[in-house]
Amino acid sequence: MKNFLQKIKFDQWKAWIYLSPAIVLLLIFTVWPIFNTLRMAFWNGYGLFKELGGELQFEFGIKNFKWVVGYGGFLDCLKNTMLLTVLTVPLSTILALVIAVSLNAIKPFQRFLQTIFFLPYVTNSIAIGMVFEAMFNIVGFGTSNPSYGIINNILGVFGVDPINWINAGSGYWANIAVLVIYIVWNALPFKILILLGGLQSVNKQYYDAAKIDSTPRLRVFTKITVPLLSPMIAYVVITGFIGGFKEYSSIVGIFGDDMHAVGGESLNTMVGYIYKQLGENHEGDASAAALILFAIIFVVTMINMYVSKKKTHY
Amino acid sequence: MADKVLTTMHEKDMQKVTVAQKITKVIVMFLLYAFLCTMALIIVFPFYWMIISSLKSTVEYRLPIPTLFPREILWGNYLEAFTAANLGRLFLNTVIVGLVSTILSLVITVLSAFAFARLEFKGKNALFAALLATMMIPGELFTITNYVTVTKFGWLDSYTVLIVPFLVSVFYIYLLRQNFLQIPNELYLAAKVDGTSDLKYLWKVMIPLSLPNLISITILKMMGAWNSYVWPRLVTSTDDYRLITNGLRDAFTDMSGQANIPVQMAAVTVVSIPLFLVFIFLRKYIMKGVSRSGIKG
Amino acid sequence: MKRSIISLLLVLSMLLGTVAFASCVEGQGGGLGGNDAANKVTYEVPAEGYDGSEVTITFYHSMGAKLQTVLNNYIPEFNKLYPNITVEHASQGDYDGVRDQIKTALTAGNQPNIAYCYPDHVALYNVAKAVVPLDSFIESTIPVKDAAGNETVLGFTADQIADFIPGYYAEGTAFDAAGTMYTLPMSKSTEALYYNKTFFEKHGLKVPTTWEEMGKLCEQIKAIDPDCIPLGYDSEANWFITMCEQYGSEYTSLDKNGHFKFDNETNRGFVTMFREWHQNGWVTTEEIYGSYTSGLFTATEGQKCYMVIGSTGGASYQQPPQVDGQHLFETDMATPPQIDPSKPKVISQGPSLCIFKDSNPQEVVASWLFVKFLTTNVEFQAAFSMASGYAPVIKSVQSNPVYQQWLDAANGFTNLTAMSVKLALSQSNAYFVSPAFNGSSAARDQVGILMQSALVYKGNDVDAKIKKLFEDAIYECEYAAH
Fold this sequence. Notes:
The complex is a heterotrimer.
Chain A: H1 2-41, H2 48-52, H3 63-70, H4 74-105, H5 110-118, H6 125-136, E1 138-139, E2 147-148, H7 150-157, H8 172-201, H9 205-212, H10 217-245, H11 249-255, H12 270-279, H13 283-311
Antiparallel strand pairs in A: 1-2
Helix pairs in contact in A: 1-13, 3-13, 4-8, 4-10, 8-10, 10-13, 12-13
Chain B: H1 2-16, H2 19-53, H3 58-61, H4 76-84, H5 87-118, H6 124-134, H7 142-152, H8 159-163, H9 170-182, H10 185-193, H11 198-209, H12 211-227, H13 230-235, H14 244-250, H15 261-288, H16 293-296
Chain C: H1 2-17, H2 19-25, E1 55-61, H3 65-81, E2 85-91, H4 95-107, E3 114-117, H5 119-127, H6 135-139, E4 143-145, E5 151-153, H7 158-163, H8 166-170, E6 184-185, E7 189-196, H9 197-202, H10 211-224, E8 231-233, H11 236-247, H12 265-279, E9 283-285, H13 286-289, H14 293-297, E10 307-311, E11 322-323, E12 326-327, E13 331-334, E14 348-349, E15 352-355, H15 361-376, H16 378-388, H17 401-408, H18 416-426, H19 440-456, H20 462-480
Helix pairs in contact in C: 3-16, 11-12, 11-19, 12-19, 19-20
């Protein structure tokens, strides 16, 4: 017992030594900026340039939060953020899981296919943005002679009429569908990489046992692979939710800075709002919105952690 | 190694299975390949786009209906890409920043993840949750504050400023912690009994066992250097320290801010090649899996 | 639940822990030299002018590699005059990149000395009182001796001021009622009407000078080629702002109590009219069409348009396509249609230059000398115009023989760039200036969105919809400027 207590004590300082480089850097480059965010959020009407111009006296209050919530498009931002997260995280996780497991299960062409799945990592982000618009775009929609992007051409092969995905007069749900596909597509390579890495760390003994018992594949998948991979799945889901709530660049990538289709409904998100406020010299409002978003993500992550604690097998 | 054992076992089993099972297996395999090929096509499309765009003329690139294959292949774009920008220096910077930050970041991540996964200390869970919480605030707001900080430190225009602020990623600590948790604790306790030091245990057992994930982190970290644009632009004022995407994005734009995209894509493709080769090399380590001898005992 | 509370507390305690760190970093912010001169819009030029001291000045811009080469060729020319001034420069991507960069740099007092700017950006920097008002420099008669031994004055001579194209020069005064000059023009583009000359000649069509003629012409062209969209207009925001100017109706004002005046009868009227035009299939825009309207203009098959109103900066994209070495048609250019052709109004775009305050007044003076060099040196303005396809800002460039030769090479098949610059120079009496204030960029964004949404509206209650769109746009503007 005494020995055990000594070990714990030893662990204490050892742990802090191991953590010290990370903690020091985080204090400087993450926690201090967060502190600054708090300062700006609770400073009524804060604007960075106003402060620099010497026009601003510190005034504590929640006026910035009121401005954020009082914004006419605030509920839209919230709705879009939630919707995109709830749709994309499960979809991308399941797809990535199936791809990773399949990649692991095949023999011929395994190397070739794996190499293919690595190509996104050498594709510069500039290229990725441009592709998508070209795929869904309809040039001259509603005119006598429109030309359709690749997606509508593929749908045409199956006899589906062209759908107005992103162009003038397109509907909200068509817009959302494109965003979901784009976000899932964007997230896949990363998730496949992580899950493949996780699969390789899984103890193969379990599989060997299953082989001997000639357990059906689906059963092996649900009863062995998923549970053994659960720490990685939990990781991918939790970080996916955190990233999903911060969705922004994909929308700008497809719909431009206005963040809606021509004549369409707003596709703005919380981070879109934050960016806009930063651009308009309202750092106070941006900070307040960031804290509101933080509160939402925090609650969702806690729920996630609680669920994964129950379902994760270590 | 393990794969081989697995296949031989598998083949022995195959002799016993019935015809019906064989047919199911063929169908399953067929579906598997069909699925993988479709997904591969979708995933690889931007890469393909990058290549064909690099061979088009600006006029063809701007066509309302994009062509899936260039009508006229313009190798001249590559020549122009080489002559237009100072990509050599930028590429070297990217390699230096990528390598140094990956190595340092791996050390920090491994140590932290080890502490969170294996050591018992007061406030561990709370600290870990706090770390996770820092991921939840949109980082856009950090830029200005961090800029002021690095200016105070006198770090502008240096490799330091490109490397140090991003060394710690809670994202990767969390990933590796999850991985470490998968490794049975018994091994660690056994090592303790044998009097093996922590660091030796980390080096001999934990690191080999989590090699696939460490390689994943390496890839992601390198890609970070490869794609980073805003921060290097902010904290450096000359090409002496700027990174590759700065050159790729900025060198080929005309007055009205429109890029000569075909030439830009040619440059992107050229600088992708070495990176691609490195990844092919690393892929081997992710896919090879790890010797299980440590666990099987 | 308990854990989450603990971790929240921990986050908070970490935050408090950094207060100590905070207090030492907090002392920044005094980077801007002229904070005390809060309300003045003058800048005290050092009495000795440029004292010949060694200074390094930095210049942020968004030039690609090609234009940087031009700049690099002329910095040695500048150094022949002022060998002790070292000029460093760097591209920050695009115009917004320059703005974002400077915005961040200002917080640490790291701003460059000179930057590319648009009026909206300067209005933003002005909130931080970071930009040097130029009047005192322009008027300065302090003598300056350059290394070649020439004695000149620090400011502009009357001839130099008269040499600037007036509309471009006036842009520098868009910031306050007093007309303080904050920027000098560097290089400019404008909007032009590109048309398919071959098609026009074949069908005996006349190039429209008014919007009324334009409407009739669209109808005519639609009768000739029912499949076409006669006119493409690239930028909806430019369209709206230019129409306000042509009608003399209000757009925005510098009045602090109500910046946004564009919700009025006249403006709703032309938006309603252009909506009908779009619904008739007469006109489309880049956003609505879904691709560059130049693509429609230069299409070799399928749907076509025969006129485009777009930036002179993109002139080369309006060049006719070649099939088997033959140009399919000839492009020509004209001033865009007007409400009153005797008083034409055309928007001007492209970078100006502003100078930032600095603790070392000699850096500011040196920056002024460099800005003066860039904006008044005929050879540089000529070389930059030829490389960029943008118009020079001083008239005397046109008498430069090399430049003249370049302009003379203009043709409607392969050299539309020179032709566009020629046009830009010829309509130099038509440029106007919109007020620039903190929030003026929001107005630009919002009227663009308004225009798009109105044009594509297909419902029956047009008036109500347009009224609503104007109200929404005003709301967004007011919110952005709160």
